[in-house]
Amino acid sequence: MKRILPILAIATVTMILLSACSRNAGADTKVTYADTVGLAQFREAKIKEQAQQVVYVPVKRTTTPRSTNNSSDYGSGSMNTASQNNAKTAEKKGWSKGAKGAAIGGGGGAVLGAVINKKNRVAGGVIGGVVGAGVGYLIGRSKDKKDGRY
Fold first, then answer.
1. Phi, psi at 64, each rounded to 5°
2. What's the pLDDT tens digit per position in 70-122?
3. How far is Cα 68 from Cα 98, in angstroms, rounded to an integer?
4. Which site among 1, 38, 66, 135 is 20 to 30 Å from 53 CA-CA?
């Protein structure tokens, strides 16, 4: 009984954490509301307005040697519409690498902490889980920064 209790406690905490992080928690109940303030029309107008905006992107030109002509060479720029840049600003979905690292590190640390501390497995599991989650988060966060997620 003394050996089963810490394992059940760790499994229960892990299941609670994993179920709390579910992205489809409220997917069963979908509520629709009537558009009383005209939000849909506002959003459509905003999208059309953004599609018509023009973004100026300067282009670096290389200069070539000219003859004794004293004319100045002014650089020109290229024009891009804002709709071409929408692919870069798309919202990233799913778990961040920091969250994945914290979950994996917390679970692994809890198991290792319970195995290492044989006198008090619950305390070892809790301490190991907290330390593992912190280390896992830091490693995942650095990967997120390299990927440009944040």
1. -110, 150
2. 555 555 555 555 444 454 555 667 888 899 999 999 999 999 999 999 899 99
3. 61
4. 38
Tokens read off for 88: 């870069």
The 10 Å Cβ neighbour count of residue 110 is: 28
Q: How many CB atoms lie within 10 A of CB 97?
A: 20
Report pLDDT digits (tens) over 40-60: 888 888 888 888 876 666 777
Distance CA 97, CA 140 (A): 5
**Token pair in block for residue 103:** 């979950």
* The token pair that represents 69 in the structure block: 């002509």
Which pair of tokens denotes residue 94? 């799913």
Residue 139 token pair: 């490693």
Q: How far apart are CA 3 and CA 19, in angstroms?
A: 25
